[in-house]
Every structure is written in structure tokens, then in C-alpha cells.
Amino acid sequence: MNNKDKHVSSVVIKQISLLAIIIVLAGLICFNLSLFIPSVLGAITIYVVCRKYNFYLQEERKWKPSLAAFALMFASLIILILPIYFIADLLIDKLGNAQAYMAKFNVFLDKIHAYIYSKTKFDILSQENMNKLKNSVGKISTSALSGTFNTLTVVISMYFILYFMLEKPRLFERILTSSAPLKRANISLIGDKLRKLIMANAIGIPVVAVGQGIVAVIGYFIFGAPGPVLLFALTAVASVIPVVGTAIVYVPVCIFMIAEGNTAQGIGLAIYCVVVVGLTDNLLRFTLLKKLENIHPLNTVFGIIMGMNLFGFMGLIFGPILISFTLLLIQIYRNEFSDENVPPDLELPVQNDKLI
């Protein structure tokens, strides 16, 4: 082995040692500050959404940095946070009494099961499956609600962090850029893709959810569905689930109404939801979401499952972002260290107004 090989080996050893130390320290920090991870994610999300307006107010309109920061924080609270918090708080208020909720849900499920069996003689919901479904719903509800009780703490700490990001945005982005151990082109790529991912999840998902919920609740009131306000919140949440979407809520409700003897109302609601709510879903997704980042449905499914377990209802937004960002980092790793040609989807133009 010549001196050059020895020198290279020593450099590699130093790199690995330093990387190991960084990973250990970062792990300790994340473990001990894990409660603030949702706050950091939320602050970054709102920063990206408000970034263009922040620079406009500070650099073109010459607002004081603190005034611009407070104005954007207030606007984001009204437009982004309160609708999500309203839906979460509505579900907590309606489902907070777990024992009473599960008793009503069991009656609801038993009525649907009896009606389907009487008409088809097909025991699709056997007693064993019924018990499994009831237990699963109870566990999921408890887990989601317990994760959401910390929402107020998350929001307060999120805005505390966000203030310092918005007050000196150039400094914040310069710190991120200088700290990233990547090529300049890859840093710009991460900024551009992250901006698109956040806009698609922070703007696209809530708009589609609230839009479908509003359209659906009109039908719930018109056709006399039980608990229309609760169904609004459940429909809005269910709209983010790919493939099945809002049908997971309105189909059982329609069957229940028919089983109760309200056949005309149940059929009318089913037609309304399939046509009007379905049209609203397609309209919003093919107009709004197509202009934003195209996120694969599997990213959304697994992101929601992971996000709900980690962050409660806030995970509806953060979960898909984390999954997509992880896949992006894998692409960046290949681009950074592989000799292969860069895939076409990574060759994105870098513009001055993009993040970082």
C-alpha cells in the first residue's frame, strides 16, 4: 500500500468517525426533544408556504421584520391551522366520550350487518369479524384522539419557532445551505422539491378535505342523515384516503338509513354523494392538485398511517411529507455519490425564487 492509499484510508476513517459522532449526537437531540418534532415540521411547513410573501413584505414593502412575521403568523393561523383544528376539535368533542361513542357505533354496525344479511344471506360481517372491526375502530379512535390532545402545545411551540424563521429568513436559509453536506445543485433541488411537497400537502390536502366535507354535509342535512356535523368531520378526514375516500363514510350511513326504514332518503343520499361529492373530488384534484406536486397514492396511504401514529391529526399533513422527503433523500444520495446519469425527474431548473 503506497502513501496515497494510506492517506485516503485515514481520511475515510476520520469521515466515518465524525459521521458516527454526528449521528449519535443528532439521535440524542431528537430523542430528548421528540415532543417538539411536530412543532419543527409545522414551522417549516408554514415557513415554506409564507416564504414568498415574507420576502415581499420585508424587502419590497419595507415592513419591519417583526411586523411581517406577526402578520404572516396570524394569516396562517386563520387560513391553515384553524380549519384543521376545528375538524380535530369537533371529533374530540363528539368522540371524546369513548364509551358512549363505541356503544352508538356498535348499534350502528349491528344494524348495517343485520340489514345486509337479511337481504343477501351473505354473512360478510361474521361475528368474529364484527368484533375485530369494533376493537380496531376503538383502538384507532383512542390513538388518534390521544395524539390530538397535545395539539395546542404543538401549535404554541410551532409559532414560537416560526417567528425566528420569518424574522430573519435570509439568515435562516443561509444556515441551512451552509450546514448541508451536499453539492449546491442538490441543495437547490431539495429546496425546490420540498417546496412542492409542502404546498401539495399543506394546501392541497386541506382544501380537498374541507371542500368535500362542506359539499357532503349539505347532502347530510338535505336527506336527514344522523349526526351531520360529525359526519362532516369524518368525511373531511376520509377524503385524504386514496381509492375509497369519502365512500368509507357515506356508504355505511346510506345503508344504515335504508335499514332504519328511510329508503328514499338513503338512496337519495347515496346518489348525491356518488355524483356531487365525487364530482367535487375530481374537480378539486384535477384542478388544484395537478398544479402542485403529483404525490403517489401509496405515499399518501403510508404517510397518513405513520403520521397519525406519530403526530395525531397533524400527521395527515406531516406523514406524507416525511415519506416523500425520505424518497427524495434517497434520490439525492444516488445523485451525490453515484456515477450514473441523473434521472430526468431530478434535472429540475433552479430559479432564484425557489427555497434556499
TrEMBL record:
Localization in the cell: Membrane
Membrane-spanning segments: 12-29, 67-88, 144-166, 197-223, 229-259, 266-284, 304-330
Membrane topology designation: Multi-pass membrane protein
Major site of localization recorded for this protein: membrane
InterPro entries: AI-2E-like (IPR002549)
Record keywords: Membrane, Transmembrane, Transmembrane helix
Family: Belongs to the autoinducer-2 exporter (AI-2E) (TC 2.A.86) family.
Name this polypeptide is given: AI-2E family transporter
UniProt organism field: Chryseobacterium gallinarum
